[in-house]
């Protein structure tokens, strides 16, 4: 009798993490914590009054069909930095499949959040769809930073074919403060080479500050960003874009810019490990 082989579907990664924070005396503390699948959260000791949460994907990267969900709720007068343990790597996906990451952050009155994940690295034939939703109370503030690496120069990685979609919706009170949709691919290499996009550069960082006094940082932010990027500020919003050849070079400008906009607060410890 002929043997029959059944081709099983590759196992996919799924994870969900939910965290709520509350103020206890003068410190931000954990209210509730939920972790499921490959999503984990860890909390380094911090001598200040704010809380630092580190997101971990125990799968070690994402590929087509993988899904991650994060939800963070900051109570009144809570202050938190949210980051990742390492760069998130997006690997080659099967045709027609996409990795998805959905993040929601709610910040109550008087609270502040710094969204500071390390770089997302896209590999050849990767596919990623990402959604970031931030809901701020009228007196809340947010610093949002995202960096994307389209192939690592030091590793000789070139991106010809890849798909990347990034959707941001930032609301403050009942008002939509910022919305953007970034979509590239599948011919990502040719698109990134266009002067209106990266002009052949490999790394793009977006920095958004929502705060009433953000416009006072405009001149200093432009001095840090330099010619390889741009900064604008209006109506309680500061937006910066930085491009470079590699993540190391970009961090030389990105880290001082974060320090300027994050009220001189220290970067998450994992950024230096």
Order of helices and strands: EEEEEEEEEEEEEEHEHEEH
> What is the helix tally?
3
Q: Note poorly predicted spans.
A: 1-7
User: Structural class, judged by helices and strands?
Assistant: mainly beta
- Biggest sheet architecture: 10 strands, mixed
Mean pLDDT: 91
Helical amount among residues, as a percent range? 10-25%
How would you describe this structure to a colleague?
With 273 residues, this protein is mainly beta. It is 10% helix and 47% strand. It has three helices and 17 strands. The chain has helices at residues 188-192, 218-225, 247-261; strands at residues 14-24, 27-37, 39-42, 51-57, 67-74, 79-84, 88-90, 99-107, 112-115, 120-122, 127-136, 141-150, 163-172, 175-184, 203-210, 229-234, 237-244. The strands form two sheets. Strands 3, 4, 6, 7, 9, 10, 12, 15, 16 and 17 form a ten-stranded mixed beta sheet that branches. Strand 1 and strand 2 (27-37) form a beta hairpin. Helix 2 (218-225) runs antiparallel to helix 3 (247-261). The longest helix has 15 residues, at 247-261. The protein is globular. The N and C termini lie far apart (57 Å). The model is unreliable at 1-7 (pLDDT under 50).
């Amino acid at each position: 009798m002929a043997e029959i082989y059944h081709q099983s579907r590759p196992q996919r990664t799924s994870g969900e993490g939910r965290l709520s924070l509350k103020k206890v005396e003068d410190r931000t503390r954990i209210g509730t914590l939920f972790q499921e699948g490959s999503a984990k959260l860890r909390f380094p000791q911090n001598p200040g009054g704010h809380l630092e949460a580190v997101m971990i994907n125990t799968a070690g990267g994402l590929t087509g069909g993988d899904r991650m969900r994060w939800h963070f709720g900051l109570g009144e007068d809570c202050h938190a930095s949210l980051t990742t343990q390492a760069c998130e790597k997006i690997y080659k996906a099967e045709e027609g499949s996409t990795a998805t990451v959905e993040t929601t952050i709610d910040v109550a009155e008087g609270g502040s959040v710094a969204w500071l994940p390390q770089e997302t690295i896209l590999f050849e034939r990767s596919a990623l769809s990402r959604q970031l939703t931030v809901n701020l109370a009228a007196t809340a503030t947010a610093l949002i930073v995202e960096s994307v690496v389209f192939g690592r120069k030091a590793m000789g990685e070139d991106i010809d074919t890849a798909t990347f979609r990034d959707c941001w919706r930032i609301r403050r009170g009942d008002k939509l403060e910022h919305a953007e949709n970034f979509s590239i691919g599948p011919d990502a290499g040719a698109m990134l080479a266009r002067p209106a996009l990266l002009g052949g550069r490999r790394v793009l960082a977006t920095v958004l500050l929502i705060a009433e006094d953000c416009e006072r940082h405009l001149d200093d932010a432009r001095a840090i960003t330099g010619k390889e990027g741009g900064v604008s500020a209006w109506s309680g919003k500061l937006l910066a874009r930085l491009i470079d050849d590699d993540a190391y070079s970009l961090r030389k400008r990105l880290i001082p810019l974060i320090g300027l906009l994050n009220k001189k607060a220290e970067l998450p410890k994992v950024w230096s490990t």
